[in-house]
UniProtKB/TrEMBL annotation:
One of its GO terms (biological process) is purine nucleobase biosynthetic process. Keywords: ATP-binding, Ligase, Nucleotide-binding, Purine biosynthesis. SUPFAM superfamilies: Glutathione synthetase ATP-binding domain-like, PreATP-grasp domain, Rudiment single hybrid motif. Pathway: Purine metabolism; IMP biosynthesis via de novo pathway; N(1)-(5-phospho-D-ribosyl)glycinamide from 5-phospho-alpha-D-ribose 1-diphosphate: step 2/2. GO terms for molecular function: ATP binding; metal ion binding; phosphoribosylamine-glycine ligase activity. Belongs to the GARS family. This is Phosphoribosylamine--glycine ligase. It comes from Mycolicibacter sinensis (strain JDM601). Residues 110-315 form the ATP-grasp domain. NCBIfam families: purD.
Length: 425
């Protein structure tokens, strides 16, 4: 295969992790990131682009002579940016607008899962305040379940979800979404530990990556509101190989096949969020892209060449790619968040100690004087790798200990329950 020039779209720690893994692929000769952040500027040519504009991304891909475009976030995918890149004759890793509805439209995802015979939470969409109270009575403790699960029916970067046993809190969240003109999705509560399984997919061909678990609540012990993700680890010592293979066979493959059957063929990264319930695995959600922050942990363990893998998926060669190779280690990533995140974050502070390959950047910018300054809620994602989870945790928290950002916070328990063998299915 000829050397590749790769353009990555996005600006988070997920995209920084993609760049670090792509950089290890001997066939990747040049990396471009748009728009990127202060950390990605050190490993790739940095360009400006409106990531929501298909014509703009396609024009940039032509300008930098990209052989492959990798689209990180869901918003451009749901808007059809991958279609525009492919229409310009450039290989693109990321699903079409049509297939990205698996994340962008919860109603579409539920319909696909029903047709594929895949277990998922019972759900109802509420789009009128007049229907809310009666609908709430059909879920949560009123229906014998542990909690209400109230979601924004659109894209909400993980922050549109409230899971609570308190009817007033569930109602307030739903009413707030309806007031803002967003339909509400009520779902039955799925018990059991959750996991994220990323699969590289091209039509019917499904290649799973290592399973991971993320931590969505802001505080230790899963306290406080949901965030975009405060940390993750991989692989999962509590999930057998057979159980992971079962999720691929019974959940991901049937959904990929159903998407092909209905003419919405998926090519890209299909992310299954799965709850290992007392009655078997059930889907919490599907996403149409790499998860953040799980990607930071998963890719730290990948030995196979990522550029060649994504190029194969984008050009019809995935079925010939062969089995993936992984480091026989564990990885943990811990997010350093700005003061007040997930509310309106404090920004503009100088960060000290954010250098090195273990520190992936998200909400950072380079100031004119060269200082690295915070510019978003999730600021950094620190990665530790070790022989086991305890060693990986120790490595991640050691690195975090040397970083200074006024008012910042992080969870201290990422991967802890798994390291102490306290997770049971
Ligand atoms: N880890 C959650 C997400 O990427 O949506």
């Amino acid at each position: 295969m000829a050397p590749m020039r790769v353009l990555v779209i996005g600006s988070g720690a997920r995209e920084h992790a993609l760049l670090m893994a792509l950089r290890n692929d001997p066939k990747v000769e040049h990396l471009v990131i748009a728009p990127g952040n202060a950390g990605t500027a050190a490993v790739a040519e940095q360009r400006e682009v409106d990531i929501t504009s298909g014509p703009a991304v396609a024009a940039l891909a032509r300008d930098v002579a990209a052989d492959l475009v990798v689209i990180g976030p869901e918003v451009p995918l749901v808007l059809g940016v991958a279609d525009a890149v492919r229409a310009a004759g450039i290989a693109c890793f990321g699903p079409s607008r049509d297939a990205a509805r698996i994340e962008g439209s919860k109603a579409f995802a539920k319909d696909v899962m029903a047709a594929a015979g895949v277990r998922t939470a019972r759900s109802e969409i509420v789009d009128s305040p007049a229907d809310l109270d009666a609908a709430l009575s059909r879920f949560g403790p009123d229906a014998g379940e542990a909690a209400w699960v109230v979601k924004d029916d659109g894209l909400a970067a993980g922050k549109g979800v409230v899971v609570t046993p308190d009817r007033a809190a569930a109602r307030a969240h739903a009413a707030g979404l309806l007031d803002a003109g967003h339909p509400v999705l009520l779902e039955s509560f799925l018990d059991g530990p959750e996991l994220s399984l990323f699969c590289v997919v091209d039509g019917d061909t499904v290649v799973p990556l290592l399973p991971a678990q993320d931590f969505k609540r802001v505080g230790d012990g899963d306290a406080g509101p949901n965030t975009g993700g405060m940390g993750a680890y991989a692989p999962l010592p509590w999930l057998s190989r057979e159980a992971a293979a079962g999720i691929v066979a019974d959940i991901v493959k049937p959904v990929a096949a159903e998407l092909v059957r209905r003419g919405s063929r998926f090519a890209g990264l299909l992310y299954a969020g799965v709850a290992m319930t007392s009655t078997g695995p059930a889907v919490v959600e599907f996403n149409c892209r790499f998860g953040d922050p799980e990607t930071q942990a998963v890719l730290a363990l990948l030995e196979s060449p990522l550029g060649q893998l994504l190029h194969a998926a984008a050009t019809g060669g995935l079925s010939e790619f062969g089995a993936l190779r992984w480091r026989d280690s564990s990885a943990v990533t811990v997010v350093l968040a700005a003061e007040n995140y997930p509310g309106r974050p404090r920004v503009g502070d100088v960060i000290v100690g954010a250098e090195g390959e273990a520190v992936l950047h998200a909400g950072t910018v380079l100031r004119e004087d060269g200082a690295v300054v915070s510019s978003g809620g999730r600021v950094l994602s620190v990665v530790g790798v070790g022989d086991d989870l305890a060693a990986a945790r120790a490595a991640a928290y050691r690195t975090l200990g040397s970083i200074r950002l006024p008012g910042s916070h992080f969870r201290t328990d990422i991967g802890l329950a798994a390291a102490e063998d306290k997770i049971r299915i």
